[in-house]
Amino acid sequence: MSGSAVALLAACASGRARVRRTTPLTATQTSSSPTTSPPATVDDTASTVPSPSPVVTGPAIYVGRGSALSVGVALTFHTAGDPAIVEDILDQARRLDARLTFFLVGDWAAAHPGVVEQVLAAGHDLGNHTWSHIDLAALDASEMYDEIQRCATVLRAQTGSIGKWFRPSQIDVPTAAILEQAGRVGYTTSVGYDVDPLDYTNPGALVVEQRVRASLHPGAIVSLHTLYPGTAAAFGPIVTAIRAQGLEPVATTAVLGH
Hints:
Blueprint: H1 3-13, E1 61-63, E2 72-79, H2 83-96, E3 101-104, H3 106-111, H4 113-121, E4 125-128, H5 141-159, E5 165-166, H6 176-185, E6 189-191, H7 205-215, E7 221-225, H8 229-244, E8 248-250, H9 252-256
Parallel strand pairs: 1-6, 2-3, 2-7, 2-8, 3-4, 4-5, 5-6
């Protein structure tokens, strides 16, 4: 197991890493506020075409859920660990015609460029989940920037783009300092989530599926991890549950509408 996988496993399993920080944010940055973007469609086939880094003039904006008018649900994966689990999820997504979002830990992505290529080729969204999955809020500004920038550098080298989305490591709601540094790197949006089945506690496939199903709603952003076979086993039933509610599993681009 790579160093990034060990760090991610330890962070996700610790209670400290899952405490939601409460640094005040502006009204547009609160996770409970729906995005004001226009309604999303489920046609996100162009979501992963490499594009230049956005021109950012200020801090990234935190978004914790999609529009309530969306018919999509974004399944987002904190990505490190055994590449075979990632490939299993990719294979299931292909068979089920589902679009996903993978927030890559940078040193893991650097060690597994072939898997990153598979994610991109399959039409999924890619995002930045820092270089080493460190407790980002514990760093000073220059260290925060370095963690985000190093992952962005890997993404650009492997895909031609830094990716559209950022998600900080070991913190749910980013601080103002984290948002500032993400903007400096070139990210306009820090993506949170509002459905968390706690799969990092490794409760097994049935529990993960039941928790997601109980919390589904239009525009939901679901937090999942590629560290556990149970999460991979829950993936198919989760997709079935989403469609049973008249929704569709789509990439974050489709849920946020931009």
